[in-house]
Amino acid sequence: MGKYRIIYIVPDKSMVEPTEKVLREENLNIPVKQGVLQSGVDLVRDYLTQGLEVVIARAGTLRAIQEAKLGIALVELPITAFDLIYAVEKAKAYGTRI
Questions:
Q1: Within 10 Å of residue 58's Cβ, how many Cβ atoms?
Q2: Hey, is 96 helix, strand or coil?
Q3: Is 52 exposed, middle or buried (0-12, 13-18, 19+ CB in 10 A)?
Q4: Cβ distance 34 to 12 under 8 Å?
Q5: 82 in Cβ contact with 35 (< 8 Å)
């Protein structure tokens, strides 16, 4: 783990690579880590020892980090229409009645 001031936490492993790609295209050296709820809190705790200052996260993971009262700046990413479409498409794998 390197020393980073900002980390970006995504809820799903499939989101890591596309997010890294966008950040690279914008010349942003921000690590993207997969974490949900408590695993997101654990990531933040680990990075705090390395000088972490800001966490970018979404929904429940952001709330879990807030509730852990780690004294870190948080940037919330809202859930978008794309997220809803993605969820419906994923749900279709489990059946047609969703």
A1: 21
A2: coil
A3: buried
A4: yes
A5: no
Amino acid identity, residue 42?
A: D
Q: Determine contact, residues 50/4, Cβ cutoff 8 Å.
A: yes
**Contact at 8 Å (CB) between 92 and 98?**
yes
3-state SS assignment for residue 75: strand
DSSP 17-57: HHHHHHHHHTT----EEE--THHHHHHHHHHHTTT--EEEE
E strand or H helix that includes residue 12: none
Q: Return d(Cα 65, Cα 69) in angstroms, integer.
A: 7
CA atoms within 13 A on the CB side of 3: 3
Q: What is the pLDDT of residues 21-49, one digit of tens each?
A: 999 999 999 999 999 999 999 999 999 99
Place of tokens 């200052």: 53
Global pTM reads: 0.80
